[in-house]
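Contributing: when you submit paired examples, paste them exactly as shown. First protein:
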Amino acid sequence: MASCHRLAEYPESIPQVLADLPRTPVIYVGGLENSPEILDAIQQHHELWGNGGEALTNSRDFTVVQEVLRMSRAPIAEWRFAADTPPRDGNWMRRPLAGTGGRGIHIWDEGEQSTLKLTEPHGFQQRIEGIPHSALFIADNEVGDVQFVGVTRQLIGIEPLGAQPHQWCGNIGPVTLPVEVEHLVRRVGNVLKWKCGMRGMYGVDFILGTDNRPWVTEVNPRYPASAELLEWATENPLLQAHARCFGYQPEAPAAWRGMPVGDFCGKAIVYATGDCTVSPAAREFAKASNPWQFPAIADIPAPGTQLKSGDPICTVFATSANAVNCTTTLLDRALEIREQLAQPVG
């Protein structure tokens, strides 16, 4: 459906690859919000359909985000910078300032021995007990409320998927929140647009605490991983809405229909549990893919690809009438795919 370019180094190779292409809009994903210099280089040749500059800086600044939460009258998890190290009592999470997908996040207690990683810029966030969620918003260039698309539940640190503790490994949704919680989450999304200058699609990660309040943990100022699930669940092609935020008026899409309203859909990342090589079966999985149907597998690597322990192998999908069955199907499918795609090394 599109030409593919394999990058020698991510993300350093991106500007060079894009510089050789005709001028075209660019949408970024994959944690590029942590590489503003790459985004600046991209914009020398192409139009960026996403948050950059001041909006990007503000949305990744915990001080600014805490001000957004204060203005939204939302609960605020305390944040400390590295110079103000809290006690190792298990009440804090150490997290890198340029993290994504849960990378590098640890409970800050006496068992945390990863002192070598402390050289990376980091901070400490109050630990909140609860269930992790993601909310998706779309902000156009006009004054007014943002479009609230929906909420999914995050899958975090699930061992059968090969994920490390606190590592993101998927989403299930859409989920319904209590009315007062949803109103508060919507308000946070609106204030983020006004305070940070957000534009297009963006996500807000939060923990629905045991106190039944949404504690925001992070803002993702770009196309979030949950977007494709909400597209199928709401029958709404979100990239159309995203494009309109940057002045583009796309033609009506071909007939497309999402999932029946009320169903749950999920995605899970399958991580390698040891060094492995992708088997020839990958070709058959790729042939079976149909872009007009809800997928069973995506992000299929090429046969012969060498993967190290902890690398993502692929993404699996599932649908069900309830979230529990959806999760079970994802885990079963992940086990099956791992056995067929991952050939152990040695």
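Second protein:
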Amino acid sequence: MLVHRSDLQPLPSADTMPQTTSFKIGEKVRHCKRPEWGVGSIAKIEVITREGRPDRRIWIRFPNVGEKTVLASLAELEHVETDSLATAASSSPTLADMHARADAGWLGEISKSKPEDMMIALPDAATDPFIPVGRRLKNTFALYRFDGGSKLIDWAVAQSGLNDPMSRFSRHELESFFQRWRFALDAQLGKLLQEARKEPGSLEDASRGAPPAAMAAMRKISQFR
């Protein structure tokens, strides 16, 4: 059977291919807009077509929230070298991490670090001074997507690493933790805004796509400076 050239679909060129071909199963990546998820490992990659263009659907296992599925063309994934500082700064240990690593069990670890201290701690990705201020700002802005209402449980899952934070804490406790965490977040943003003054352009770049709550917090902090 003859096939007309008009029936043939041209192969995608390097210019039309999204920047997704560099991802491989087993690689370590960080979701730049979700730094508190930690450094994840790529478990599966599926080639798909989206809006007429080739794309990749990627399954990633994150230590703090489990497996997530993202589109490579939309998710801001960053390769992470396992022996780099970025791995150590990806996220702070969660309650679930403590439980998994505890030699003396859950109670042994709790005696060393109180759960409430960990629930109000900010991720290292937002506070580590070895990370460029622009990246810390971006990571800090991303945390403002959480609120104390409809997304309280989402925040608690990310913060604790527990699939069901309500099995460990009451809602009243979580609300109290969130308020203290948000206070710490605002304080950290204030410090970063001062630091960003020494690096022109870092604030503008970091604030692109920031949640409305982050922009509101920045304006409020700026009023008192």
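If you have annotations for the second protein, write them as plain sentences, like these:
Residues 115-223 form one domain.
The beta strands are 28-31, 40-50, 53-62, 66-71, 77-79.
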